């Protein structure tokens, strides 16, 4: 994405942020995750925390568990049911309230998926092929480009537009998809009459959340601290992380990625600055740093884990939450598809 359009997106995002607390009723938030594993601290500080804040501010909130997106670049759905179940548990443990936020899955909402056909007619092959996120996901997967991976930004437009979402909290890497969604909405409205809003990405200012090795936190890098780990598992993971032999602890991302990632992790969990934590530890070395980080992470996650534990025991309740979310999502999707049929004069 060009610097110009990033700047434009960032500016619109900042304007919306300012308006949100004044007019929460004007906004519908839609965002989601692929159910490929457990949520971790990167998800929490990157987006979950923000979703809870928007929900609590009174913004209509919808969260999609993007199960069809799992097979864009994988050839198995082996753990999908367990991953979906645990994703609902993680959301609720973090403060997502199913009374106020609709939680649902792709595969349970046929009318959402049906939007794919008219939407595909509104994009060109070259637009799809030049989407940078599609390209990098294809490279990372080591698979051939599947038709679903190539067209998944259009599917994501269906996710956002079926409920007329107009704000989408996302990381920078998802901005090309928001741009594509805006194009689809605008082209549909021009061709058939206005049905859809042109959604905006809501960018957050948070630093990229580093994993334990200093790279972006990601399950596939094996550097993530999952919310669902026990305290002992967390301690073990932090203990194993790679630091260096310099005893004086300093925050220096470039030259000391391991030490700095640990400092950022503790900073996020305690709301303090990295440099202050480093100064406090001084020349006590990596062992003392790791002890401090373990305590900060476990302390921060304790209430989330406690709720998680309680929720995970009530399987019926968790499935009820998802079934009710799916029911509400189907209502919205059918209403929107009805408008689409009418706009396209396909009413028989
Ligand atoms: N593609 C997103 C990801 O990989 C997940 C997602 C699916 C999503 N549908 C969405 C995000 C709609 C925002 C809006 O993280």
How would you concisely characterize the structure shown here?
The chain has helices at 3-20, 41-56, 67-70, 80-94, 110-114, 116-120, 125-129, 132-141, 147-161, 175-192, 231-240, 257-270, 274-281, 285-312, 315-343; strands at 28-33, 60-65, 101-105, 167-169, 200-202. With 348 residues, the protein is mainly alpha-helical.
Kindly describe this structure.
By secondary structure, the chain is mainly alpha-helical. Helices cover 57% and strands 7% of the residues. It has 15 helices and five strands. It has helices at 3-20, 41-56, 67-70, 80-94, 110-114, 116-120, 125-129, 132-141, 147-161, 175-192, 231-240, 257-270, 274-281, 285-312, 315-343; strands at 28-33, 60-65, 101-105, 167-169, 200-202. A three-stranded parallel sheet has the order 1-2-3. A two-stranded parallel ribbon has the order 4-5. Helix 4 (80-94) crosses helix 14 (285-312), helix 9 (147-161) crosses helix 10 (175-192) and helix 12 crosses helix 13. The chain is globular. The relative contact order is 0.14. The mean pLDDT is 94. Bound molecules: tryptophan (TRP). Tryptophan is lined by residues 30-34, 64, 66, 69, 156, 159-160, 168, 170, 174.
